[in-house]
Write a structure and sequence with these properties.
The complex is a heterodimer of chains A (195) and B (95). In chain A, helix 2 runs antiparallel to helix 3, helix 4 packs antiparallel against helix 6 and helix 6 packs parallel to helix 8. The two termini of chain A are 24 Å apart. Chain A is elongated and about 75 Å long. Chain A is built from eight helices and no strands. Chain A has one domain. Chain B is an alpha+beta fold and 95 residues long. Chain B has one domain: Arc Repressor Mutant, subunit A. Chain B is 54% helix and 19% strand. Chain B contains four helices and three strands; from the N terminus they run αβααββα. Classes of the chains: A mainly alpha (195), B alpha+beta (95). Chains A and B meet through helix 1 and helix 4 of A and helix 1, strand 1, helix 2 and helix 4 of B.
Chain lengths: 195, 95
């Protein structure tokens, strides 16, 4: 970059271009949403299948995929930041921290307090998940994610009207609507801006 | 010509560095070099000037046995950047 006298217009242009280019470099991508949405469908889908086959002794097993998913996500994020030399942003840090806090609470609730929460477990799970999705959507200003999160929130609230047996299905639908579809759309949007 | 504008910020490379640091929490030397496409020598000089003005904070550490220089904007740098942008606006649209 050469040294030169800038006019006020050039300075403002340089500022806005630099900030936009920097933001573009670390734009969030849909991979994590697709991964967690698919994992949620896999876990609750497997539980449903075990229940239908009356193999009740195995219904808790798929839940253990969640801590494994958390470890894989942590490793993936750490590797991506290192490999692509991506700086940390305030929004990125906030989203990451919210993700960890909500995720840990969901796991603690699922493993330790499912009996206490009883029939409310599924809806509460979906509502917390929706909260995380909505906050992410609003932070990165990506409407499909915000709308997906809002729909998941409605599914969560609606689940209170259904029996516990159907909560697994609600969770799967919420994962598809709130994470998988917006995640795919986010990847498409990112690819378009990369061209 | 634009004598009222902050001379520290009114330089293409220094302004780019501060603009990058305004959008991130912290960035390392390599990232800023890639973004600004400046040479290491020139970048180091401009970073030093910004550091001396108290606009940025420079942290030198080691990462996998390699030196790693992290930069972040200071409160003073943020205020200076905001004032600079306001001054630019006043130049373009004088009240």
């Amino acid at each position: 970059m050469e040294k030169s006298e800038l006019t006020p217009e050039q300075s403002l242009l340089l500022i806005s271009k630099t900030i936009e280019d920097t933001k573009e470099r670390f734009k969030e991508h849909g991979g994590i949403f697709i991964f967690w949405g698919s994992l949620t469908v896999l876990v609750f889908g497997s539980q449903l299948i075990f229940s239908l086959l009356e193999l009740y002794q195995f219904t808790m097993l798929p839940i253990y995929l969640f801590p494994l998913g958390a470890i894989l996500t942590g490793l993936y994020v750490w590797r991506e930041y290192r490999r692509h030399n991506i700086p940390r942003t305030i929004i990125g840090n906030v989203l990451q921290n919210i993700g960890w806090v909500v995720g840990m609470n969901l796991m603690i609730m699922g493993f330790l307090f499912s009996d206490v929460l009883g029939d409310a477990m599924g809806p509460v799970f979906i509502i917390l998940l929706a909260l995380m999705i909505i906050v992410s959507g609003l932070s990165i200003r990506f409407k499909p994610l915000t709308i997906g999160g809002a729909l998941a929130n409605l599914i969560g609230l609606g689940s209170f009207f259904f029996e516990r047996d159907y909560h697994g299905i609600s969770l799967m639908v919420a994962a598809v609507v709130g994470m998988i579809i917006p995640g795919i759309m986010l990847n498409i949007a990112r690819r378009k801006t990369d061209v | 010509m634009f004598k009222d504008l902050d001379p520290i910020l009114h330089s293409q490379l220094r302004l780019s560095i501060v603009s990058i640091l305004m959008s991130v929490d912290e960035a390392n030397f390599t990232f800023i070099k890639e973004e600004t496409q400046a040479t290491s020598g020139n970048l180091s000089i401009q970073i030093k000037k910004l550091q001396e003005a108290g606009y940025i904070k420079v942290k030198k550490t080691f990462k996998n046995n390699y030196p790693n220089t992290s930069l972040s904007i200071t409160r003073k740098g943020m205020v200076a950047f905001e004032n600079y942008v306001n001054d630019l606006k006043n130049y373009i649209n004088p009240k």
